[in-house]
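REQUEST FORM: STRUCTURE PREDICTION
Request ID: SP-0412
Submitted by: Lab K.M.
Chain count: 1
Length (residues): 377
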Amino acid sequence: MPKHNDKKEQKTVNLALQGGGAHGAFTWGVLDKLLEDGRINIDGICATSAGTMNACAMAWGMHKGGNDGARQALHDFWKNISDAGQKANPIPKMPWEKFMPQSGWMKTDDTLSFFLLDSMTRLFSPYQLNPFDFNPLRDVLEETINFDELRECDCVKLFISATHVHSGKVRVFDTQEIDLDVVMASACLPYMFKAVEVDGEDYWDGGYMGNPALFPLFYETDTRDVMIVHINPMERNETPESAHDITNRINEISFNSSLLKELRAIAFVKKLIENDMLKDKHKDDFTDILVHSVRSDEVMTSLSVSSKFSSEWDFLTDLRDKGRNTMTAWLEENYDDIGIRDTVDLHGEFLNSNTKIFENHHGDHKHKTHEIKRKTA
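STATUS: Completed
RESULT:
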């Protein structure tokens, strides 16, 4: 598909990028297509974990060379991830696994090597298993992104989430605060790596308290369209029964919970606006937000648990291509609605539609309904 360079077509959105390990390659594809298309400008990005990697690589590449530079930086990051993974893969395949009929990424069962690693992390902490805190991701980030230059980026606003270990609260770092430690903190899985220290405080993966945290976009940008790129499935059609499937589903639910809470709060205040329940003196304090959702639960639910740790290039590029296809279809169906209306049924897809206060009385989600946000004080 050719680039669209007509200035009249340009629209602006904020991005919200979820974390989820190697499954973040799906987001790579979404962003690659968005950048190639060229009709959408990006004001701010809130991100967590793998979303943070994508956000920082894209912003740095954009700072250096516009959309083409951003696409190249994303490619280089994921290629470096793959190359490093071949040297130090935490879940190497056993020699016999490639001959097994269930071997691969699109399956329900996981590899024996994954079971062994998972069992070890349940019995021993990273302070015992990994006392030197070896993490090849740090070297990849140092090789791929110049954080001194990234902090000078004024082409997009970054808001990176990490979980403060002691308080359990989310900490959001803006562009000028981002360095290698901040990015590592945003992706620090406490079962595998020691907490990352930033400014004398310890942090874990941001997904526990904000996957991602949306509120910085409401306060720090002037753009009302928020495009959420999901890589944690919202729904599964079957109840998990094996131990690792149960653990995986619990993680998916918990990593989506903070996002759902923010969407529920937005929907509640939106209801106040729609029903004219705000006093006149407060009405100017709120602005409509338009919510958009880019996701493919069908793709994500087909992936094995262990594939979140896969660094095989064929797997990563396959996910990238699925992300590109998803974004292509989304743009064809929804581009004209950006800046005009929501393109997701917020109540029907993310909230409890059986709860009376959140009922969607409009039926068709293309009806001109709006989310709201608090203006910056």
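NOTES: Confidence is low (pLDDT under 50) at residues 1-8, 90-109, 353-377.
Reviewed by: T.R.
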